[in-house]
Specification:
With 89 residues, this protein is mainly α. Helix content is 74%, strand content 0%.
């Protein structure tokens, strides 16, 4: 079975989810709100997967520790990104 690459998955999600950007028109914005909730649900699922992978940080098996380390680095990057974005308010 051939697995999709990240950029291919993103393209599929873009088509399946749609835009979450409002335009100020009630009917369109209602759909944007539904799309946003879908994005939130998908993001929560992704974050849970990365957080679970982070639990392997510190294992003596190289591959398991590497997975945990990579997950930890991603979470630190996201924390920095969130702090920057929230600081814009």
């Amino acid at each position: 079975m051939t697995r999709l690459k990240s950029n291919e998955i993103i393209k599929v999600l873009d088509i399946l989810v749609g835009s979450a950007e409002p335009i100020g028109e009630s009917n369109y914005d209602e759909k944007a709100m539904e799309n946003l909730q879908t994005l939130i649900d998908i993001t929560n699922w992704c974050l849970d997967g990365v957080a679970n992978a982070r639990d392997y940080l510190g294992r003596y098996e190289y591959s398991m520790n590497k997975i945990g380390f990579d997950a930890q680095c991603a979470m630190q990057d996201w924390l920095k990104w969130l702090a920057e974005r929230l600081g814009e308010e």
